[in-house]
UniProtKB/TrEMBL annotation:
Origin species: Streptomyces puniciscabiei
GO cellular component: a single term: cytosol
Keywords in alphabetical order: Cytoplasm, RNA-binding, Transcription, Transcription regulation, Transcription termination
Keyword RNA-binding found: yes
One GO MF term attached to the UniProt entry: RNA binding
Biological processes annotated in GO: DNA-templated transcription termination; transcription antitermination
Transcription factor NusA first KH domain mapped to chain residues: 949-1017
Domain named NusA-like second KH: residues: 1036-1089
Biased segments, Low complexity type: 49-78
Classification lineage: Bacteria, Bacillati, Actinomycetota, Actinomycetes, Kitasatosporales
The protein, known as: Transcription antitermination factor NusA-like protein
Chain intervals for the UniProt region annotation (Disordered): 49-101, 363-383
InterPro entries the record matches: KH_dom-like_a/b, KH_NusA_2nd, KH_sf_prok-type, SAV_2336-like_N, TF_NusA_bacterial, TF_NusA_KH_1st
Length: 1101
């Protein structure tokens, strides 16, 4: 009874073990009944799910239910809604089985799409093309003649008559016939056969390339057909491809599974064909599976007598044994695998005379008597699912068994979709493992058998599926689905590969809602697949608010709650006399700053085409397509760029187009093409060619602002070249006079000139101004106070202690003079600063002078100047100069000398700190006598401990070169350091008159370079970057990403996604991710850099 219940549940699709079933019975007696129970809540939740996997409540109420939409920010924390996603399924809903007594999940409407797939040859395609070069043979063509120049000249010289001499023209030496075994077991290799044919056609080695189907499974076979994997039966005899002239090369593509391979009929056919033509077999299966097929091979040494000779003329010997001991029986037929090395060895042999190579040759088939041959295809008796899976597990590899489990989760599937699942599992799972599953007998054909073979659906039996699903955990299935989704997004726009279905209310097909999705695709991929997005119900609340709304004087009011703040750009429609001046003045008057570039901006468009010049100025300043609010509805301008991916490449026009016009009435002196404004509208090839390749383009937009902006975005997408080379058109009315040359004067408003001016204005604003935030004066630390006191000491006393002399107390000999100063002397300024025309053209403090003279740290120099080491030397937090005296496996022994008393203090420097500092040179070691600058840490049980990698060490070095740090005029707010490579320093002034960069960098960068030299000691190349501090986390992040101009930033808790132009992605990330890592340390964020146009919310999720 118990087993019967479990079996009944399994037939209903609920597979439970005995323990799970007993747990369910135990819970059923203890869970509370009624609507408050967890089962009822689960049913309500699952019932609220829509066909695309989103809860219905997340899609908003309809307009009829809630009245007109308003832009009111919802209560609670803001979170941007996800984009709509579609569940891509590999099979349509099958017809219900007549004997099925349990409930069938409802079918939902769906639309069929053609997603792309991976190439079968992959990265080896180019190398395979090179391997075919030896087959480029040439022979005289008796049907074509060409001029024989030497003989013509000689004949004219002898006879004096203007006569010509002809000779047969050179033509391709070979034709090619490809015989593709097109049985069901070859479906996983259909794309391979197609790519082999295309590769041969593009190689330029053959005059004609013919492709035939090869039937090796019927009792009458082998027979040939006109089209592989077609619906017409194979009726041609194999002699149709036999060429008595020997000029046709034959290639047989097969997996060796057909009956004719096993009973010797294919071997007899190959033997006959090899007597008149060169021939080879391309085995689709990997070598490890050859033993189970009818195609087996052994290696022999082959030598040819002439190029492109029939295989029967080859000389074959054993690689080791002499011919007398082991002669070759039969006609040699090479068996190849689709790899460059194997194909190259064969082509060199065929394409050259007297060449020798070691090739795998087809082994003879075991001969059978007529009584041994089966009269019909063998059938395996029906087995229980457990026995079927156990039989498969007994011979299948681990990778094939894992792949079968993943396929069972998303079946039914066509074979190309199975390849996507296989590739999502990683490089360890290859096509051979898919062949193991396909040949295992676990799969059965389902669905419409009238479709072409490449669209056939294959599925597992229910019992088999249930067992296989228990092999892998659900999280792994989720990871595989995500990997497939990511790969589909990457492949979007390439050639379609197979048939799949997406839920869509207008679809004519139906899908089973109980089937697991193969992958999930977002709106952009759906648009690339050509699927019209279903109409979504009107939301009752506004889209997420923007950071900034930019209006013009003629724009309508900004809808309430749409943006956090508003800005007016004074751009009025009228005569555009000087576009450069007007653009700069408008941006300056609007108050746009570089910090606004990363803000989420919406442009409130005025009516009609007059919105385009002001919008172009904003887009040029931000270097991206900002959203627009036009004609009462939001417009996603960045999304309009994707439509070009459905167009593909078009040929250049035969003549150079100087000018063209898109839209409007026909114009004089230039071609005028229509232009569809609808984002889903198609463009003809003539329009695309004119818009893309015309040097100058006039656009005549419709009167609607949204239509004009859409037309601008679509035209710009067609005319964009590279990541930064925008080429915007000229806004025209269509009535301007014919243009003269390439000049845009008098042709309308040059939008590209506006964009370039706005882009230049932003770059100048970044270079010219430093938007530094002023912070309160913090308490000065005791160590910094001592350095300030040292800088204010008596210069004469310090200089005498340094051993220099003076005659008048003002002009001194320079302590750094090594005989190269000439008449340069050290001068004491009114403030306690010194200058030297040779060493210090700009006055420096006494601490800096002592640091450079005695090679001390600023803290040691202060102690020397004050002649006072303080209560404790060396004190924790102090930078000191340490000398290496010895080494243990874990640490270096060092001594630190008191700069006043000369007393030596023992210290240890952990060896791992030095290895971290020199990670790019792991074999570097400190030697006895080497000097390093280190930070004193808190004493431990081992004594005084030093650090080379602490971030505070950077500040203790900088205070000697930036005196403003010791007086509180400039403060360091944060340091992010990767020792030995890069340090980012966030700093802020305490008075508006001070500048951060001026204080830290100094004239000719002498301050920051001096600090870098002291810290590295010449052993590393660590660089310092000074960042302007801001209390606004977004602005600080923009400042910290020194090498990027962000086009969008999304921050959620401790994570941030930053979009930058495509050409800046590499520099924004930095070598080894260094730039983004340190920017994240400064801001307390985990930073991810993505190209502009990426959906930041999806990346954040």
């Amino acid at each position: 009874m118990f087993e019967r219940v479990l079996k009944a549940l399994a037939d209903c699709g609920v597979g439970l073990s005995s323990e799970e079933f007993l747990d369910a019975l135990w819970l059923a007696t203890r869970l509370p009944p009624g609507p408050a129970g967890p089962l009822a809540r689960m049913e309500r939740t699952s019932g609220a799910l829509s066909d695309d996997g989103l809860q219905a409540g997340d899609q908003g109420d309809s307009a009829d239910a809630g009245g007109p939409a308003t832009y009111a920010r919802p209560a609670g924390p803001f979170r941007r809604p996800r984009r709509g996603r579609g569940a891509l399924r590999g099979g349509a809903a099958p017809a219900p089985e007549p004997d099925r007594t349990f409930a069938v999940p409802p079918a939902a409407p769906a639309v069929s799409v053609r997603p792309p797939g991976e190439k079968a040859l992959g990265a080896a395609e180019l190398a395979l093309g090179r391997a075919l070069r030896p087959l480029r043979l040439h022979r005289p063509d008796p049907h074509r003649a060409e001029l024989d120049i030497p003989r013509t000249v000689a004949a004219m010289a002898e006879t004096g008559l203007p006569d010509i001499v002809l000779r047969p023209a050179e033509g391709h030496g070979l034709d090619l016939a490809i015989l593709v075994d097109d049985g069901v077991s070859m479906l996983p290799w259909q794309r391979l056969a197609t790519e082999v044919r295309l590769l041969m056609e593009r190689s330029g080695a053959f005059r004609f390339v013919h492709t035939f189907s090869l039937d090796t499974r019927s009792p009458e076979g082998p027979l040939l057909g006109y089209r592989p994997f077609g619906t017409a039966p194979a009726t041609l005899p194999p002699s149709a491809v036999a060429d008595p002239s020997g000029r046709t090369l034959l290639i047989v593509v097969s997996d060796g599974v057909g009956r004719a391979w096993r009973d010797g009929r294919m071997h007899d056919l190959l033997d006959r064909l090899a007597r008149v033509s060169p021939i080879a077999v391309l085995h689709t299966l990997p070598r490890r599976m050859w033993a189970g097929t009818g195609i087996r091979a052994e290696h022999w040494r082959v030598t040819t007598r002439r190029a492109a000779a029939a295989n029967a003329t080859w000389r074959v010997t054993d690689p080791v044994l002499p011919p007398d001991l082991r002669p070759f029986d039969g006609t040699p037929v090479p068996v190849l695998v689709p790899t460059p090395d194997a194909v190259a060895a064969w082509t060199r042999l065929v394409g050259s005379a007297g060449t020798s190579a070691l090739l795998p040759l087809l082994a003879p088939a075991p001969r059978r008597t007529p009584s041994d041959a089966p009269s019909a295809a063998p059938t395996r008796p029906h087995q229980e699912p457990y026995a079927e899976v156990l039989r498969f597990r007994s011979f299948a590899s681990t990778e094939a068994y894992r792949l079968a489990a993943h396929l069972a989760a998303v079946a039914p599937l066509p074979v190309p979709a199975m390849q996507l699942v296989r590739q999502a599992l990683g490089a360890s799972v290859d096509s051979g493992h898919l062949a193991e599953v396909f040949l295992s007998g676990l799969l059965r054909r389902v669905g419409d058998i009238e479709r072409p073979p490449q669209q056939w659906q294959f599925d597992f039996a229910e019992g088999t599926r249930r067992i296989l699903l228990g092999v892998i955990p659900p999280p792994e299935l989720v990871r595989t689905t995500r990997a497939i989704s990511s790969r589909l997004a990457e492949l979007s726009g390439t050639a379609p590969s197979f048939l799949a279905w997406l839920p869509h209310p207008d679809g004519q097909d139906h899908i089973d809602t109980g089937q697991r999705a193969l992958s999930w695709v977002d709106e952009r991929v759906m648009r690339r697949l050509g699927v019209p997005l279903p109409d979504a119900p009107t939301p009752a609340v506004a889209p997420p608010p923007y950071d900034l709304a930019i209006r013009t004087p003629h724009s309508p009011p900004t809808p309430p709650g749409m943006a956090a703040k508003e800005m007016l750009i004074p751009w009025a429609a009228g005569e555009e006399a000087d576009l450069k001046l007007k653009t700069a003045q408008a941006l300056r008057a609007a108050g746009l700053t570089p910090s606004d570039v990363a803000a989420k901006i919406v442009f409130i468009a005025p009516p009609g085409p007059q919105a385009l010049p002001a919008y172009t100025a904003v887009a040029g300043f931000t270097h991206r397509w900002v959203d627009a609010y036009a004609d009462g509805s939001p417009l996603d301008m960045a999304g309009l760029q994707l439509f070009t991916e459905r167009i593909g490449e078009v040929a250049r026009p035969s003549t150079f187009l100087v000018w063209a016009q898109a839209g409007g009435p026909p114009a004089d002196g230039m071609p005028t093409v229509p232009f569809a404004v609808d984002p889903d509208g198609q463009l003809d090839e003539t329009s695309v060619r004119a818009v893309r390749y015309a040097a100058r383009l006039r656009m005549v937009p419709p009167d609607s602002a949204s239509a004009a902006l859409t037309m601008l975005a679509r035209i710009a997408a067609l005319r964009t070249r590279g990541d930064t080379a925008w080429r915007l058109p000229v806004l025209s009315t269509g009535t301007e006079p014919p243009p003269a040359g390439k000049s845009t004067e008098g042709q309308g408003v040059d939008l590209e000139l506006i964009r370039q001016t706005a882009d230049r204005y932003r770059k100048e604003a970044v270079k010219g101004g430093e938007t530094t935030e002023v912070v309160p004066v913090p308490p000065v630390s005791p160590l910094n106070r001592r350095i300030a006191e040292a800088n204010a000491a008596d210069p004469a006393a310090v200089l005498r202690r340094l051993g220099v002399t003076s005659e008048d107390g003002v002009r001194w000999t320079c302590p750094l003079d090594r005989g190269d100063h000439g008449d340069a002397v050290l001068t004491v300024a009114s403030r306690p600063q010194v200058s030297c025309k040779h060493c210090y053209p700009r006055a420096v403090g006494l601490v800096r002078l002592v640091v450079d003279t005695l090679s001390l740290t600023p803290d040691e120099a202060a102690a020397f100047i004050l002649n006072d080491s303080g209560d404790r030397f060396p004190a924790p937090g102090m930078a000191v100069t340490a000398r290496v005296t010895g080494r243990t496996p874990e640490a270096y022994r060092c001594t630190v000398h008191d700069p006043v008393t000369g007393q030596a203090h023992e210290a240890i420097l952990p060896a791992h700190a030095f290895r971290e500092l020199h990670r790019d040179r792991p074999l570097s070691r400190l030697r006895k006598g080497d000097r390093v600058v280190a930070l004193v840490l808190e004493p431990s049980a081992d004594g005084l401990v030093l650090s080379l990698t602490a971030a505070d060490l950077v500040e203790r070095v900088l205070v000697g070169f930036v005196p403003e740090l010791t007086t509180g005029e400039v403060v360091i707010t944060g340091i992010a350091r990767v020792a030995g490579a890069l340090t980012k320093i966030a700093a802020a002034p305490t008075r508006p008159a001070n500048t951060v960069r001026g204080a830290f960098v100094g004239r000719d960068a002498e301050r920051i370079r001096g600090a870098q030299r002291l810290l590295s000691g010449g052993t590393t190349n660590e660089k310092f970057e000074v960042i302007a501090y801001s209390s606004d986390q977004r602005v600080l992040l923009v400042n910290a990403l020194v090498y990027a101009e962000p086009t969008g930033i999304l921050i959620d808790r401790q994570r941030a996604v930053v979009a930058v132009p495509h050409h800046q992605v590499r520099s924004a990330i930095g070598r080894g991710g260094l730039n983004a890592q340190l920017a994240g340390q400064l801001t307390g964020l985990y930073v991810k850099i993505v190209p502009a146009g990426t959906d930041l919310r999806l990346e954040l999720d």
